[in-house]
Write a structure and sequence with these properties.
Layout: E1 2-6, E2 14-17, H1 21-27, E3 33-38, H2 67-77, E4 78-88, H3 93-103, E5 106-113, E6 130-137, E7 151-153, H4 168-178, E8 184-187, H5 194-202, E9 205-209, H6 213-226, E10 232-234
Parallel strand pairs: 1-2, 1-10, 2-9, 3-4, 3-8, 5-7, 8-9
Antiparallel strand pairs: 4-6, 5-6
């Protein structure tokens, strides 16, 4: 049975709260998280102009001044033997890696190959068809299953719920490679709740924060709908 805790700091299976992630990190005990799986702001003021109904502008995406303090807190709460996956754009990947190496053991760069290309400069640049995922490994944590390629193919979403919505099957794959049943997965920038859904599907515990109320409300609605056929307790 899964319990979703909304705006509370008690976790049985899924905890999702509408607040700044630093509030959560400040209150988490040291070495309590099995996996960090996060799609943070990329520092590039992203806002899609492709759709007629534009999404809300991503909060805190105009700079990376928060990155160092955030990584310090993340390194404090991750367990000694744990993994983390940090989605990243090519625009500031050098900044991300430089800062990450100060706090976490950088291991590899994964390439998420999408099924079709993005927009961008239609005439003066090559069409983007990938996204980067920075992989870090604390201690001697091993990956589950066979040794897979660092190029992962997964269809992109239509971003119906969030401007940078990630495919659930991609998140499930990463979760299953790096955790076991009932391990605790953290997403500090929960967005539309894709990581929470992936944790539900793989029987992992989830703790997440989403600062923007609109996206938080979308997440709650999505999780309720996804779990409507299960034994679900809402508080």
């Amino acid at each position: 049975k899964f319990k979703i805790i909304l705006n509370m700091k008690i976790t049985e299976k899924i905890e999702l709260t509408n607040e700044d992630c630093f509030v959560m990190l400040d209150n988490l005990p040291e070495k309590s998280i099995d996996l960090l799986l996060v799609d943070p702001p990329y520092g590039m003021s992203f806002k899609s102009n492709y759709r007629k109904e534009k999404h809300l502008k991503i909060q805190n995406d105009n700079s990376l001044e928060w990155l160092s303090d955030w990584l310090f807190q993340v390194s404090r709460v991750l367990k000694k033997d744990s993994h983390c996956y940090i989605f990243c754009s090519n625009h500031f990947v050098d900044v991300f890696i430089t800062e990450i190496k100060k706090f976490l053991p950088y291991k590899n760069m994964l390439i998420w190959e999408k099924n079709n290309t993005g927009m961008g400069d239609l005439e003066g640049d090559f069409a983007p068809q990938y996204e980067l995922i920075i992989f870090c490994s604390n201690g001697k944590k091993k990956l589950n299953g066979k040794r897979d390629s660092n190029i992962i193919k997964a269809k992109k979403t239509n971003n119906e719920l969030h401007p940078t919505q990630k495919p659930v099957n991609l998140l499930e794959y990463l979760i299953e490679k790096s955790t076991n049943v009932d391990d605790l997965v953290m997403d500090c920038f929960s967005g539309s709740g894709s990581t929470a859904v992936a944790c539900y599907n793989t029987n992992r515990r989830f703790i997440g924060r989403e600062k923007k109320k609109k996206h938080y409300e979308v997440s709650v609605s999505r999780i309720k709908k996804h779990t409507s056929q299960q034994n679900l307790f809402l508080f």
